């Protein structure tokens, strides 16, 4: 009999061109069978005690720790990021999320007694937490480990089964996650990983999961919410950002410059919470730039151990960044540092960090998510104008305010339309399991982490009992 040759996809490291692996896609038609498997597995998984479920998450954590070096190397290669970024921003927060679930799931999922009002005297009230069923997690490529695992862990601990569809842009990490769950010995079909792109994602979305947790672009988020609405499926949408960093005249300029450089250029700006706009009071623009430029000009790009930032992850993303920078320069913006797009090597996956000045609010670079190593700087005349500019986009994920005046910082913070505000810091770390994370406006719908991070994957069930 002749062997059937299934088509395999080759995966290359964006930074070096090295072949990382080959894999076969999951056919889109497999979605309904996967959903059926997940539902069958759910009937037993939900009946395990929280402690038993969490013991599998501990197995997973130990499997990650055992292989941490190889995992860091693979993430770095697949995304094009430096190894330190893979370790510190992708793996460590994932381990932290595992520990968080291990530590808190049991208590948080215990039924809660509620004080019965006088009118209902003689009855006992409580709230119980019932798992939703099967959670579909669709994840992106920039932090492919953390942004897949983080929602999965809470959903699993709460008693749900999970189907993960990782991004086709970083499929090696998707495969790695599948292997790690197999190592952790989860019961069959409690976790299934579907490998493929848009079509597969759409097919899974249509297969009626009980919840969809999506992280990715606004455009895809809208498509997913529309499909979900047809079947009344609840969703969490973690979408893009155009995060403003407001620097006021009494800020510590050295710290602010360090924050801006890190916030704008880490992972080559391919971070949903990266600093995408810097809004600065007129009178400190010059001294701030003097602090900023030497830091930016000293950033080392590459894939070696001493490099600060890696490559872009995909050619598609380079094209988006290029278009926005070109448009800004054509409309009168000036390059303070970095290369003009006409000088970019079309073969290279690197974009030199760019700082732009003389930008206007209506330019795409100030309105649309760039997701690249570009920092546009705009002047503001005082606090009110800074707030107006900061709130002047369709996004609202993170924002930061830099000033030594704490009262002013809190006042501004309260007026910012944003899921999170940092005072004298940037990029809220997702390792902050104690704080809710999510966006306002087109940056997203819903929150995870925080007090409700595990319970959000449950139905709240009200139980009232007559004590007779
Ligand atoms: P990005 O452009 O930043 O990769 P996307 O929103 O396109 O963001 O992709 C994020 C995730 O959503 C990926 O896993 C991708 O395969 C998936 N995806 C893209 N289009 C759809 C769709 N129509 N339905 C479901 N999932 C999709």
Automatic annotation (TrEMBL):
Residues 5-463 form the Aldehyde dehydrogenase domain. GO terms for molecular function: oxidoreductase activity, acting on the aldehyde or oxo group of donors, NAD or NADP as acceptor. It comes from the Bacteria. One of its GO terms (biological process) is aldehyde metabolic process. SUPFAM superfamilies: ALDH-like. Pfam families: Aldedh (PF00171). Keywords: Oxidoreductase. The keyword ATP-binding does not apply. The active site is at residues 238, 272. The keyword Oxidoreductase applies. Belongs to the aldehyde dehydrogenase family. PANTHER family: ALDEHYDE DEHYDROGENASE-RELATED. This is Aldehyde dehydrogenase. It comes from Pradoshia eiseniae.
């Amino acid at each position: 009999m002749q062997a059937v040759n299934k088509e395999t996809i080759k995966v290359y490291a964006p930074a070096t061109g090295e072949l990382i692996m080959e894999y076969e896609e999951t056919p889109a038609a497999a979605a309904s069978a996967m959903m059926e498997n997940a539902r069958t597995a759910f009937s037993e998984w939900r009946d395990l005690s929280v402690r038993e479920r969490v013991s599998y998450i501990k197995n997973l954590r130990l499997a990650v720790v055992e292989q941490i070096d190889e995992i860091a190397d693979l993430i770095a290669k697949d995304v094009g990021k430096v190894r330190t970024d893979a370790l510190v921003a992708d793996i460590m927060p994932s381990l932290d999320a595992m520990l968080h679930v291990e530590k808190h799931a049991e208590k948080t999922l215990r039924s809660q007694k509620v004080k019965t009002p006088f009118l209902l005297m003689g009855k006992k009230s409580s709230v119980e937490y019932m798992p939703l069923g099967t959670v579909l997690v669709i994840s992106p490529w920039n932090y492919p480990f953390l942004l897949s695992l983080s929602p999965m862990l809470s959903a699993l601990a709460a008693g749900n089964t999970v189907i993960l569809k990782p991004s086709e842009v970083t499929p090696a990490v998707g495969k790695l996650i599948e292997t790690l769950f197999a190592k952790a010995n989860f019961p069959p079909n409690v976790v299934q990983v579907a490998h493929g792109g848009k079509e597969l994602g759409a097919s899974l979305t249509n297969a009626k999961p009980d919840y969809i947790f999506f992280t990715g672009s606004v455009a895809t988020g809208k498509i997913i919410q529309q499909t979900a609405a047809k079947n009344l499926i609840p969703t969490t949408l973690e979408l893009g950002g155009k995060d403003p960093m407001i620097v006021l005249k009494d800020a510590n300029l050295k710290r602010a410059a360090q924050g801006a450089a890190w916030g704008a250029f880490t992972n080559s700006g391919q971070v949903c919470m990266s600093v995408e706009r810097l809004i600065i009071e007129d009178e400190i623009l010059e001294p701030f730039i003097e602090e900023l430029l030497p830091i930016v000009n000293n950033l080392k790009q590459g894939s070696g151990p001493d490099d600060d930032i890696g490559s872009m992850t995909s050619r598609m993303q380079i094209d988006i960044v290029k278009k926005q920078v070109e448009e800004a320069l054509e409309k009168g913006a000036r390059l303070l540092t970095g290369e003009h797009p006409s000088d970019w090597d079309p073969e290279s996956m690197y974009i030199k960090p760019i700082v732009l000045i003389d930008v206007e609010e209506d330019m795409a670079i100030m309105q649309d998510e760039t997701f690249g190593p570009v920092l546009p700087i705009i002047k503001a005349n005082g606090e009110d104008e800074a707030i107006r500019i900061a709130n002047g986009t369709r996004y609202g994920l993170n924002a930061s305010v830099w000033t030594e005046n704490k009262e002013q910082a809190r006042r501004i913070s309260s007026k910012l339309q944003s899921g999170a505000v940092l005072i004298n810091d940037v990029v809220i770390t997702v390792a902050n399991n104690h704080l809710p994370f999510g966006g306002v406006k087109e940056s997203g719908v819903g929150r995870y982490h925080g007090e409700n991070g595990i319970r959000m994957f449950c139905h709240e069930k009200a139980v009232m009992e007559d004590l007779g």
